[in-house]
Design a protein that fits this description.
This protein is mostly beta strands and 118 residues long. The chain is built from no helices and eleven strands. The strands form two sheets. Strands 2, 4, 5, 6, 9, 10 and 11 form a seven-stranded mixed sheet that branches. It has a four-stranded antiparallel sheet with strand order 1-3-8-7, with no helix packed on it. The chain starts with a strand and ends with a strand.
Length: 118
Amino acid sequence: QVQLVESGGGLVQAGGSLRLSCAASGRTFSNYAMGWFRQAPGKEREFVAAIIWSGVSTSYADSVKGRFTISRDNAKNTVYLQMNSLKPEDTAVYYCARVRGTSSFGSWGQGTQVTVSS
């Protein structure tokens, strides 16, 4: 079972940047594609970005394309989400998960809160 711990969230002004981290336990981390998702108050959880096991291929939701970058370090069992040019509508709790395509599977971490003020 892979356990996930997200960190790096916080309060930032619009136009600012944050870097989220997701640390995974288990020796099989590098076997899986990983993704980031977010859930804003009153909304369903939505896909943000994904990266395949090797890091060579990535995909993004249209709403974050060009502003967010997903990456991973398999030696550290960690996946990152660099978020630039943040907007108030990016405010949400951000989660990482294993993915198949843009769909998550397995357990979720506790999430990390990102709040963007206007």
